[in-house]
Specification:
This protein is about 40% helix and about 15% strand. It is of the alpha/beta class. Belongs to the MoxR family.
Amino acid sequence: MHDTSQTHPLQVPKRLQQPVQLGAAHAEQFAATFEALAAAVDTVLLGKQEVVRLALTAMFSQGHILLEDVPGTGKTTLARTIAAAVSGQWRRIQFTPDLLPSDVSGVTIFNQASGAFEFHPGPVFANIVIADEINRASPKTQSALLEVMEEGRVTVDGNPHQVPQPFLVVATQNPVEMDGTYRLPEAQLDRFLVKLSVGYPVEAAEIEVLRGTHQRSPEHLAPVVDTETVAQMADMAKNVYIAEPLYAYLVQLANATRNHPQVAVGVSPRGLIALTRAASVFALSQGRTYIIPEDVKALAGPVFSHRIQTAPDAAMRGITGAQIVADAFDQVPVPLPASAA
């Protein structure tokens, strides 16, 4: 386990107490900050603008990110760069088979000097936690993340301990070399707002990587925003306008995955809420205070696909969650504006 926390203390930022009445100026400010953060990350992870923006959308949606790809494609670099671009405390946990749950959440130790038990927080007590190669730890250790990812707190010896806010888990895993690994349970997969694949860079970007690797390290990236700004932007996204037909559209898409003949388990209500939150952030990042169907289409794949369990015969034929999502969009009609209906 590697602790690369920064030196400044943990602080829980004050959240907005009153709902924000969003206007065009709010949307423009949100979009400008979002683009500045994305541009900073782009200087380290070249040629991956779409993945970067999806990851930032998840962060401002107060969700968690699962990065799955072959080794050496930049999964950990993306996670470290996002952490570096946000001026908050971050820590990295290298998951291994011998890692214990207390190594993640913390432990209570008896202090002989004071004659009392004291809680020593683990590395999850940070704003951004990088869980590297999460599928190499045992299920018992993986489960240590379940409560904190969902509720933002850790319970040790019956006592709850709140983690700093905002709180983001960026986990990575490799789909190859599966010997000695433990597949993430569906309950834990459902807690990740998005599952992303970085992929290989295009030729031009890979040439640039070779030319300037030493100049594009996350350690040399200056912070763009602080945790207070991230928290405020996340609160702004909660006030994005969603028209009534779009609510029905979202539910119908989820039902299409649940009723698909090749699906064993469709999208959960948690997944539907996650898509709504992500679409709200995506709309603001485009300078809008309202959601349109295109926002839903842009995010449904990364948000829905990993939550869908295909039937055994469909899995043997190679049917994936992404294909089920595509079928759902083919089946559900797009809602039309009131003037065009």
